[in-house]
Design a protein that fits this description.
CATH architecture of the largest domain: Roll
Shape: globular
Number of domains: 2
Largest sheet: 6 strands, mixed
CATH topology of the largest domain: Nuclear Transport Factor 2, Chain: A
Structural class: alpha+beta
CATH class of the largest domain: Alpha Beta
Distance between the termini: 34 Å
Strand content: 35-45%
Radius of gyration: 17 Å
Length: 232
């Protein structure tokens, strides 16, 4: 990991490996001292990596088991991780720590780091960017990494999607950005009068392009951070 490593997550930028990233990571390990990460899917390019994963462990505070999914993207520079973009479903973690019932963890990828590294593909990128011109695609017919609580389609009337980063590897691609639109409801903790408020939902996405069409879309949204921003 590069000393200047930066991570964008939940609408925040952790800038600097020693200054901000490691303290935030240590804080999570203090909360989940036996934390495990199970990788389910990867996309490997010469200078970029994306992976779908589940984190799971016992909270030192509540003493309860929780599992929550996510997607993270990395840019690689000179053999080191230079920058990351990630979203994790901390909303699901919150629900489990309240209920005491852990969510099922999907099967791991049998050998994620032995996958073939594919070169960037301009046709794949063009297909994904064209698909994003209809940003409602992001909330319909996708594999949403969320358990319990509202789905994206319950939360937002989509206006546009802002891309913060995107890379491709063969016929697969990954990107991170923000869904912008109006709040339509869905969060039980948000008062009813807040419908119609502007909202931004950070998401991380992995997708395939088959015969020129985007398919097999996996998306993780920052539901917890979105709820907190609406409440503030």
């Amino acid at each position: 990991m590069h000393p200047g490593y930066c991570l964008s997550i939940s609408g925040h930028l952790l800038s600097g490996r020693e200054e901000q990233y490691l303290p935030a990571t240590v804080a999570q390990l203090d909360l989940f001292p036996g934390l495990c990460v199970t990788v389910h899917d990867v996309i490997l390019a010469p200078d970029a990596v994306a992976m779908r994963f589940t984190e799971h462990g016992v909270s030192s505070r509540e003493g309860k088991v929780s599992s929550w999914g996510g997607i993270t993207l990395f840019r690689i520079q000179d053999g080191t991780l230079r920058q990351g973009w990630a979203e994790e479903d901390y909303y699901a973690r919150k629900l489990q720590l309240r209920s005491g019932k852990v969510n099922t963890i999907r099967a791991p990828h049998p050998a994620p780091w032995d996958e073939v590294i594919h070169l960037p593909n301009s046709e794949t990128e063009e297909a994904i960017r064209a698909w994003l011109t209809s940003p409602c695609n992001l909330i319909c017919g996708v594999d949403e990494i969320s358990v319990g609580g509202p789905m994206l389609s319950d939360l937002i009337k989509v206006d546009i999607f802002e891309v913060s980063t995107l890379f491709t590897a063969g016929n697969r691609g990954a990107f991170h950005g923000n869904i912008l639109g109006k709040y339509i409801g869905g969060f039980p903790e948000i008062k009813d009068g807040d419908q119609g408020k502007d909202m931004r939902i950070p998401v991380a996405v992995m997708a395939d392009v088959i015969d020129g069409k985007v398919s097999n879309v996996q998306i993780c949204a920052d539901r917890l951070g979105t709820s907190r921003r609406l409440s503030s």
